[in-house]
Amino acid sequence: MFVVLACGQEKKKETVNPLAYAVITGHIKNRQVYPQQSALKVIIPSYWNAQTIQECAIRPDHTFTFRFQPLALRDISIETFIPYLLIRPGDSLHIELDFAKLNKVEFSGTAGKLNQDLYAYTDGPLFRSLLHISCGLW
To answer: Considering only CA atoms, which of 107, 65, 114 is closest in space to residue 88?
Structure first.
């Protein structure tokens, strides 16, 4: 049996500038499926039942970019297409969205793994059953 002791080793705390911008970029495949979709909206909920909505036109090369200051870890959404995202100050998040396969979204960047895991969880049967129960749909 081996025992490893980590005496005297401190884990470095990650310092985050709360004023740092978060950047979300993305690319849309099969845009012809929804040709009328000319823009995307990021919804940033806040306290007091308010929200900030940031709209970005989808460029001719089928890409988009959002840039904002989340101040802390925030849950946000991209209206109609991605209901749950998590973003922190300084994060970068790249989204590959396929209009022909809306249940197949790929994430990369500093917030990529977190959001890929969140998307897998919220797209799964356990989350959907909990959502139905909490909303009184069952």
So the answer is: 114
Buried/exposed 1-40: b ≥16 CB within 10 Å, e otherwise: eeeeeeeeeeeeeeeeeeeeebbbebbbeebeeeeeeeeb
Kindly report the length of the chain.
138
pLDDT tens readout for residues 107-117: 999 999 999 99
The DSSP annotation for 63-75 comes to EEEEEE--SS-EE
Phi, psi of 48 (to 5 degrees): 65, 35
pLDDT in tens, 3-61: 444 455 555 566 778 789 999 999 999 999 999 999 999 999 987 788 999 999 999 99
- Number of Cβ within a 10 Å radius of residue 88: 19
Structure tokens at 123: 């797209």
Q: What angle do CA 131, 78, 61 make, to 5 degrees?
A: 145
